[in-house]
Hints:
With 249 residues, the protein is of the alpha/beta class. The protein has helices spanning 17-28, 55-69, 94-119, 146-165, 184-191, 196-201, 212-223, and strands spanning 8-12, 32-37, 46-49, 74-77, 128-134, 172-178, 234-237. It has one domain (8-243): Rossmann fold (3-Layer(aba) Sandwich). Residues 13, 15-19, 37-39, 51-53, 78-81, 103, 107, 132, 134, 178, 180-181, 183, 185-186 line the site of nicotinamide-adenine-dinucleotide.
Amino acid sequence: MTRFAGRVCVVNGAASEIGRAVAARFxxxxxxxxxxxxxxxxxxxxxxxxxxxxxxxxxxxxxDVVATHGHLDVVYNNVGLMDRGDLxxxxxxxxxxxxxxxxxxxxxxxxxKHAVPHLRGTEPSGGAIVNAASFLADIGAATAQxxxxxxxxxxxxxxxxxxxxxxxxxxxxxxxxxGPIDTAAQRAVFERNPGALDKRLVHWPMxxxxxxxxxxxxxxxxxxxxxxxxxxxxxxxxxxxxxxFTVPD
Length: 249
Ligand SMILES: NC(=O)c1ccc[n+]([C@@H]2O[C@H](COP(=O)([O-])OP(=O)(O)OC[C@H]3O[C@@H](n4cnc5c(N)ncnc54)[C@H](O)[C@@H]3O)[C@@H](O)[C@H]2O)c1
């Protein structure tokens, strides 16, 4: 498939496993990938180190992408932060709360704010934004990191509003509600808490993690013209977790 042939695709938070998988998928389908992360990395035809919570850096990033490549077509906002100090609300301090909101929500706000003026100029299909959210935005959990879940719920609402706001401009905005995807970071959370994975798995209808290929394919679908009539939506990628009351034995 060459769905992104000639398209300039920015992947923010590109150094993580899902970020790398999405960048590889865009490139495999012909995209010119610009990988961006706060840590040093080698993802993309152009690899940029930038802090997505810093407005001056975000503005400069998109100005530079368009100056270098001539246009901007796709933005995937993958930046995320799960902070060990982000616990029950009663046990979370204000600095942690702000750090978690900044990384998970403010980064998406800034990225969209400074990408949209460039995406609007894309011809003929219009541009696409895909935001990484979480199934935790849609469901309560006794174990959830509450700041993270609140931030991801903010990402979903920002996606909805922006998608509707831009609906006639040709720019589509969607989110992915990731369930547990098989990354080292996700596995490490369970490894730190013996027995926790077994307790969780009984609530997962499919009884397994999602794969990186499934994550990348879903983001690529939403970013492509195949999803041309989908905007302002949040697509669950969670093996049915948020839809299930009881699960198979
Ligand atoms: N892995 C999962 O199972 C899962 C489940 C639900 C949601 N998600 C969400 O999917 C996305 C990707 O998850 P992941 O596990 O691959 O990665 P991750 O959440 O571990 O990290 C994403 C990347 O963002 C970068 N980053 C953090 N702060 C940044 C900043 N200020 N500026 C620029 N880059 C910054 C990190 O360096 C990292 O490379 C995240 O938004 C995450 O919250 C993942």
